[in-house]
Amino acid sequence: MSQTHFGYQSVDEGEKAQRVKGVFDSVASKYDVMNDLMSMGMHRAWKAYTVAVANLREGDKVLDIAGGTGDLAKAFARRVGPSGQVVHTDINEAMLRTGRDRMLDDGLALPTTICDAEQLPFRSGSFDLVSVAFGLRNMTHKEQALAEMARVLREGGRLLVLEFSKVAAPLQKPYDWYSFKVLPRLGQWVAGDADSYRYLAESIRMHPDQATLKAMMKTAGFGHVDVHNLTGGVVALHVGIKC
Ligand SMILES: C[S@@+](CC[C@H](N)C(=O)[O-])C[C@H]1O[C@@H](n2cnc3c(N)ncnc32)[C@H](O)[C@@H]1O
Questions:
Q1: What predicted TM-score, i.e. pTM, was given to this entire model?
Q2: Cβ(4) to ligand 1 under 6 A?
Q3: How far is CA 197 from CA 120, 172, 206, in A?
Q4: From ligand 1's centre to the CA of 66, what distance in Å?
Q5: Atom of ligand 1 nearest to the CA of 28
């Protein structure tokens, strides 16, 4: 079996999905509070920016992949209105359940489906917009997942990939210190799990940088790709148009 990386470790491809599942099973119940703490609330601004760039219209059909606890799906649903549809999906049941329960508490019932981004159970050309926030990094076959995202979009539809990326050089040292010294301790303190947050820091370093991901999206069928660096490249929003 081929090898891939799980953070800095080299593992069998078949093992990676299980290890990623273990991470999100472990953190699901504390995921939202940890997101606020570790990003100092900035993930809310990154997601708000993504929603603004999505510029959805009433009636649009949207697929949120790796949707987890549902921040984007919820915001999108408000914009597409009752004539539109947002499908909230994730490979992990614990994350999806947490998100679905949160949305039901807010009076929102969305179609919710467990699915692997690498094998999407939707017809070709079904959606106006596909989003994946902080999910692509965890996928084993990223090229396959991006090709699937292109397949389920209509011609002219857009893919929004919000993901950690390569920070600007002056931020590198403090960012590394924060990632490897502070994050695992925060994870241990709040979620009782340092290893999952060590994986987070490592997986960010192993993820393709802005230019590489742009090239991968072009190969997958996105004829035009724009890159928006946020917070000095801590995060980047890649917007691909299927054309
Ligand atoms: C860091 S969370 C992001 C959740 C949410 N999108 C957000 O921005 O808060 C990453 C999510 O990716 C999901 N994931 C990992 N591999 C996946 C795959 N192959 N297909 C679909 N989802 C996957 C995980 O289960 C997890 O819920």
A1: 0.97
A2: no
A3: 28, 18, 14
A4: 3
A5: 27
CB of residue 201 inside a 6 A radius of ligand 1:
no
pLDDT digits (tens, 9 = 90+) for 36-51: 999 999 999 999 999 9
Mutation test residue for ligand 1: of 6, 92, 110, 152, the one with most atoms within 8 Å of CB: 92
- Rounded-to-integer distance, Cα 206 and Cα 10, Å: 11
Determine whether 202 is exposed, middle or buried from the number of CB atoms within 10 Å of its CB (0-12, 13-18, 19+). Answer: middle
96-132 pLDDT, tens per residue? 999 999 999 999 999 999 999 999 999 999 999 999 9
φ, ψ at 209 (rounded to 5°)? -75, 180
What is the per-residue DSSP string for 121-169?
-S-TT-EEEEEEES-GGG-S-HHHHHHHHHHHEEEEEEEEEEEE-PPPG
Which ligand 1 atom sits closest to the C-alpha of 47? 8
Please tell me the total number of residues recorded for the chain in this structure: 243
Q: Is the beta carbon of 200 within 6 A of some atom in ligand 1?
A: no
